[in-house]
Amino acid sequence: MKKLLLASAISALFAAPATVLAQAKPPAAPPVPTLDKILEASGISVSGYIDAGYTYASKNVQPGTGTAGTGGFSTRVFDQQNNSFALNQFGLTVAKQPKEGFGGLVNITVGRDAEYIHSFPEATGPGTPMFDITQAFAQYADGPMTLIAGKFVTLQGTEVIASTGNTNISRSILFGAIPFTHTGVRGTWAVSDTVSLIAGLNNGWDQLTDANKGKTVELGVTLNPIKPLNIVVSAYSGKENTAPSGAALAQADGNRTSLDAVVTYTVIDPLTLGVEFLSVSQDHFVSLVNGSSISAKYSGTAGYVTYMFSPKFRGALRGELFNDKDGARFGKGPTATTSATKYAEVTFTGSYLPTDSFELRAEGRSDKGSNPVFVDFTTPTPATSKTMTTIALQGIYKF
Questions:
Q1: pLDDT of 167-200, one tens digit each?
Q2: Any idea of the CA torsion for 124, 126, 130, 133, to the nearest 10 degrees?
Q3: Residue 289 DSSP symbol
Q4: Which terminus of the chain faces fewer neighbouring Cβ atoms within 10 Å, N or C?
Q5: Omega of the bond prior to 121 within 30 degrees of 0, cis?
Q6: Tens digit of pLDDT for each residue in 21-51?
Q7: pTM, two decimal places
């Protein structure tokens, strides 16, 4: 009994200082918040991506203005290259867009693709800055109404500038036949959960500052009558310069009107179908045949099939037809006898998505024109052809 009491007393003696020390120990400091948590708490979102790739073309297409004979010819906007690696895009978006009140968004594009999307008065094409402020606008939201003012992307088209918003590597012919961005004001009214109306006024097609006194009106409607079906119809009309792509801005202004419709339907979870219709007219266009003033037109149709074979594998098929009736989009090939050229292309892209943040793509594409418009610079005297084939690889990392 004495031994038990003695052992208890010794245990209590040693336990007492430990208890005092434990009680005297200061509480642990709260964890330091990470940057993303700070931004989230402030309502600011930051996102971005890196797009790098490789392209091989059957013709030795040299980067140029896009007009045959001045550096090669391509129906593409971005991938005018042959057997070349490239940093296509680094995109970064910082935004604060509350459902009520004031906000804003800034989106920059850096890399080779940025050379081709600059707004007037900046020049475009090889040798121009590989940095572009693609969007920068202030926003005010009040209930169903949202107003933005500044520079923003166009309403038209299935495909977009940001690589992450497309399922193919190369852009469609139609993508280059519509504007990239506008500078002005735009209002969106959400009439209901299924209908939104859009109206705006801007400087015109890809114009940071207006090249003339006329303004361009934009109108649009988005419809989502049933969950798997989405319809976007948009129109632009206003005075624009009538020079064809790649030509000097020396021709008179004329009214340009474009109408675009995009329909997307998810048949079943893995399968999505899409179709786009585009029609553009340009008044006071100087004919490439006889120099007379005409109302030039071009139009096109594109179809899309996307299928998720599994959560990590996706296939995307695109086919399109484009009618450059008067050469208003591409001009006239060096050996063409008429300014009217019809184009067709088919593209298949396979994608591997090992994680939510990374995607690897491989693509094959074939283009064909009714005239020999594709220029091959492999010989001292450039040759022309009606066809061109390309193969491309692409890696995209999103953050």
A1: 999 999 999 999 999 999 999 999 999 999 999 9
A2: 10
A3: T
A4: N
A5: yes
A6: 445 556 666 777 777 678 777 889 999 999 9
A7: 0.86
